[in-house]
Write a structure and sequence with these properties.
Elements (H helix, E strand, L loop, with lengths): L3 E2 L5 E2 L9 H10 L5 H19 L3 H8 L1 H18 L3
Antiparallel strand pairs: 1-2
Helix pairs in contact: 2-3, 2-4
Length: 88
């Protein structure tokens, strides 16, 4: 299916607009109350915790904790986007 712009600026073949569910709205309302930098600090703590575990020779635990950082940063990005653009 082709998504091309029309003269009015809408896209032909675009999926219909869907409303967010109740759970999504409730989660966004609660996470919007958190300061955005908490996710950055949590990601940094994950990296430092991973480094500490690595120096103690706990390689598997170090990898596990170190993989939290990207997830926390993505959650922080989502939080920031919800604050800037709101939930629809």
């Amino acid at each position: 299916m082709s998504h091309t712009a029309t003269a009015t600026g809408t896209r032909r073949g675009a999926p219909p607009h869907q409303e967010e569910g109740f759970v999504a709205k409730m989660i966004e309302e609660q996470t919007a109350k958190l300061p955005s930098d908490i996710f950055l600090w949590a990601a940094g703590a994950s990296i430092l915790g991973s480094l500490a575990l690595k120096t103690m020779g706990q390689d598997k635990d170090s990898q596990f904790v170190g993989q939290w950082a990207p997830t926390l940063l993505i959650l922080g990005l989502y939080n920031k986007l919800v604050k800037l653009h709101g939930s629809e």
